[in-house]
């Protein structure tokens, strides 16, 4: 894959998500979310990316199952385009946060985006580890429910049945598609150490370590916010009765 094609695909992706964000701004915004319109549009755009990527990543392995047997060299134009699209999204989201938020509010996400852009960039430019990158994008299956959770909270629907059901699915998919996927990817890196150049191995190992720590912290926050706090409130109500 030529560098020009990568730049064109990635640049088109940046423009696409900019248009998605603008389109969301023209739709109805809940009154409770009108206090922070930028955040509503940003999360909704992230939801769109996750929805597209989750389906696309699964289709990559469905259409080209041989890629699962060789995550280093084997890839398709379809899977390469997915990784390039995601790089474009992360570049767009990085710029969107830099322009609209204070650094202290978003430094964790900015750091996450830099790591992802670097790792995915190495993959699409070298045309190696594309399959590994697609495995990483399977976490977007959980991101669909993670972003929907934020959307429901901003729409003042945190007490609804829909929110409760989404919270359960969110936590379940978090374990399966985030924690388990990261654990499998780390194991794969270790087992294939001899096949991977030192630079790529170091970059991958550091990236995985950072992602693992960030995801464990986020999991604890979700568990405390959606389950432990609600259990405490219910216990207090029972004591008052």
TrEMBL record:
Pfam families: TRAM_LAG1_CLN8. It is found in: Membrane. SMART domains: TLC (SM00724). Residues 35-231 form the TLC domain. GO terms for biological process: membrane assembly; phospholipid homeostasis; plasma membrane organization; regulation of membrane lipid distribution. It comes from Xiphophorus maculatus. Keywords: Membrane, Transmembrane, Transmembrane helix. PANTHER family: CT120 PROTEIN, TLC DOMAIN-CONTAINING PROTEIN 2. The chain crosses the membrane at residues 46-62, 74-92, 112-141, 162-186, 198-223. InterPro entries: TLC-dom, TLCD. The keyword Membrane applies. It is a multi-pass membrane protein. This is TLC domain containing 2. GO terms for cellular component: plasma membrane.
């Amino acid at each position: 894959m030529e560098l020009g094609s990568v730049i064109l695909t990635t640049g088109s992706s940046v423009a696409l998500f900019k248009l998605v964000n603008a389109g969301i701004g023209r739709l109805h915004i809940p009154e409770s979310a009108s206090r922070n319109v930028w955040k509503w549009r940003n999360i909704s755009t992230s939801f769109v990316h996750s929805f597209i990527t989750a389906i696309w990543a699964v289709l990559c392995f469905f259409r080209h199952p041989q890629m699962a047997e060789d995550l280093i060299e084997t890839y398709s134009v379809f899977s390469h385009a997915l990784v390039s699209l995601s790089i474009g999204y992360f570049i767009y989201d990085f710029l969107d946060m830099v322009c609209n938020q204070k650094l202290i509010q978003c430094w964790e996400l900015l750091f996450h985006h830099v790591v992802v852009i670097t790792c995915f960039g190495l993959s699409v430019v070298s045309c190696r580890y594309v399959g590994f990158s697609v495995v990483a994008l399977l976490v977007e299956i959980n991101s669909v429910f993670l972003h929907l959770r934020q959307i429901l909270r901003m729409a003042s629907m945190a007490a609804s049945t829909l929110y409760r059901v989404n919270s359960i699915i969110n936590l379940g998919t978090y374990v399966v598609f985030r924690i388990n996927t990261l654990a499998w990817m780390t194991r794969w890196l270790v087992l294939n150490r001899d096949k991977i150049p030192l630079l790529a191995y170091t970059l991958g190992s550091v990236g995985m370590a950072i992602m693992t720590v960030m995801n464990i912290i986020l999991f604890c926050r979700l568990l405390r916010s959606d389950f432990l706090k609600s259990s405490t409130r219910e216990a207090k109500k029972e004591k008052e009765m």
